[in-house]
Amino acid sequence: MNLPPKVTERAFARLAEINDGGTAQPLRVAVSGGGCSGFQYDIRLDHAEADDLVLEGSGQSVVVDPVSLPFLAGAVIDFSDELIGARFLIENPNASSSCGCGTSFSM
Q: What's the CA gap between 89 and 87, in Å, rounded?
């Protein structure tokens, strides 16, 4: 059985900051074909669909659609805030390689 993705407290905390003062929108993490390595991550605020996997923490939600779920099995969804920029990032054990920017990968 594949392990579901995990979301770090840092990622939930950043999502809470983004949603502060407004209606809390889930963060959608999806995988689609494309990018320089074959697959790419699509990370955006969205609404949850009935068949999504919902990961909850700190009053926030991260959703993953059933098509993307096998690509994200065992992955860790995190948030990084460094001098080069701030972004949500995916540590994906299923990726055999990824591009330098971290938004696309191959399996």
A: 6
> Around Cβ 63, how many Cβ atoms within 10 Å?
20
- 20/17 Cα distance (integer angstroms): 5
Using DSSP bridges, classify how beta strands 76-82 and 85-91 pair: parallel, antiparallel or unpaired. antiparallel
Q: Supply the range of the domain harboring residue 62.
A: 6-106
77 close to 62: Cβ distance less than 8 angstroms: yes
**Alpha-carbon distances of 87 from 5, 34, 40, 84, 107, rounded to whole Å:** 18, 20, 15, 10, 22
pLDDT in tens, 59-70: 999 999 999 999
Distance CA 10, CA 58 (A): 10
CATH of residue 67: 2.60.300.12
State how many domains the chain has: 1
Give the global pTM. 0.84
